[in-house]
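Sanity check

After download, print the first record. It should look like this:
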Amino acid sequence: MNSAWAKDFPRLYELYRESEQDNEANYFKNFSPARSSYERLEKELEELDKAAWQEFKQKVRKYKSYIAKKHELRGYQQLFDLLNEVNGYLYLKSNGCEEIQFISEKNVKTPDLIACCGGFVVLLEVKTVNESKDELNWISQNSRSSPSTGKLGWKRENLLSNGS
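Expected structure tokens:
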């Protein structure tokens, strides 16, 4: 990573510094192609207050392998599941909640966030809906990668119903 990356994306760069930087699968290794995605992520991370940012970084440290763990079919799903907790924080913030905190994980299941909202304590468990294993296998078997874009193209004959 170069100094411009650190300057333009300071919070993402902090996450990168906490990760396995030498791992070729590191999500942040190939910076340029996904610049707009990084801009969106950086903007979301910047909305965390100082305490929440420290709490989130602590959680990332616990799961730092997710940054460099690319599943054959699911890609960086575990990383994005973790990053989606920031969206939970932003949701609570946009609904007028205060004192929003990430809950440290223990050996028992706990919600992801706690906040005060309208005199009540609010707990939030962030869930990310992902494709099923069967769906991912179908996509993998019935698509082809375009050499120029790297995007998946569906085989038309597999999308037609039996009656067509």
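If your output differs, re-run the checksum step. Summary of this record's structure: Residues 3-125 form one domain.
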